[in-house]
Amino acid sequence: MLSTFDWIRRSESGIELLATLDVLKKKPYLFESITQIGPPHFALNGPCQRCWVYPRYFQPGKRHKYCRICAAILKHKAPFVKLSPKCAIIWGYLNDIPDTLRQEILGETSSFFVAGYIHDRQSFLLILPKIKLGRWLREFVIYYGAQLRGQLQVFPTVGSGHRYTLADLLTRIIHYQSNLPMNALYVRFYPNIASILRPKEREQAGLLTFEISDFLSFLETAKIFRTIFLPHQQDELYDLLNLKKTSEEQFYWGRFVGELSKEAKDLLSAWDIRKWPKEKIQLLYELKNYAEFDKSH
């Protein structure tokens, strides 16, 4: 019969993953109520058309395409349609999961997590809003940084209709956990599906694996950037930083800087961002979607 992790790995999208974890939490009895597998597939009947394991759910006068569990998961998708794209997934693989972290993942009171799952003594899965990633990592380092070794792999949720499902990507993420030594605490950052499918390209560019303190430093830079520059200024700056050398380059830069606030001008000068390597600029723009806006500024 299917285990909890088997159900998680049947999620095609972030929406389905959130719905699955929600049903596991609110209706655990459903997963114990079915004890038989469905019939072989044939013209008039067959197993559930989602899990392809359990029998379809029948009601008087109505034949469902899904088993009770899959029907419940699909019914619970609606509240997560808007939430899922705003979330990041973390697959953690550590030398050990402290009891306090275990209780936080499985508890009801976390101010960070949307959902969580503990696979074994070393592995866990978390879903949290992207903009809360930095705050959670900082607290994680404060409480556990001195005692834990391993890696936290951060990747986005996936929508429906992609060639690769979320289950496909999660399987790859779990496979990659054996590629790093357990001598420090690392963060692996995958901003999109392509980076999960082709991690070597990102690793060679120095954009995949970071010690957790370095990653937090980059996140703080992205937070400052997002706070100081208006959205359209961020876009204009990106275009300028990727502008091919032309005789009018200095003119474009002068016009752009002239429209900035004094604080933004000072920041550009302090960072000397025009001399940054392309890889560092790429990382800044990838991380700004994970950075909080400083409302107190």
Can you put this structure into words, describing what you see?
It is a single chain. By secondary structure, the chain is α+β, with helices and mostly antiparallel strands. The protein has two domains: 4-79, no CATH class; 87-297, no CATH class. Helix content is 44%, strand content 13%. The chain is built from 14 helices and eight strands. Strands 4-5-3-6-7-8 form a six-stranded mixed sheet, sandwiched between helices. The mean pLDDT is 91.
Features:
alpha+beta; elongated; 297 residues; 44% helix; two-stranded antiparallel sheet; 2 domains
Write the layout of secondary structure elements.
Elements lengths: L3 H5 L5 H13 L3 H4 L24 E2 L2 E2 L4 H8 L11 E8 L4 H8 L8 E4 L4 E7 L3 H12 L5 E7 L9 H11 L8 E5 L3 H5 L1 H6 L4 E3 H17 L2 H11 L7 H10 L3 H10 L6 H10 L10
Q: Treating each run of at least 4 consecutive H or I residues as one helix, how many helices?
A: 14
Radius of gyration: 23 Å
- Hey, roughly how much beta strand do the residues contain? 5-15%
Number of domains: 2
Uncertain regions: pLDDT < 50 for 5+ in a row?
A: none
Helix content: 40-55%
Main β-sheet, spatial strand arrangement = 4-5-3-6-7-8
Principal-axes shape call: elongated
Give the strand tally: 8
H/E element order: HHHEEHEHEEHEHEHHEHHHHH
Distance between the ends: 54 Å
Compute the average pLDDT: 91
Main beta sheet, described? Answer: 6 strands, mixed
Structural class: alpha+beta
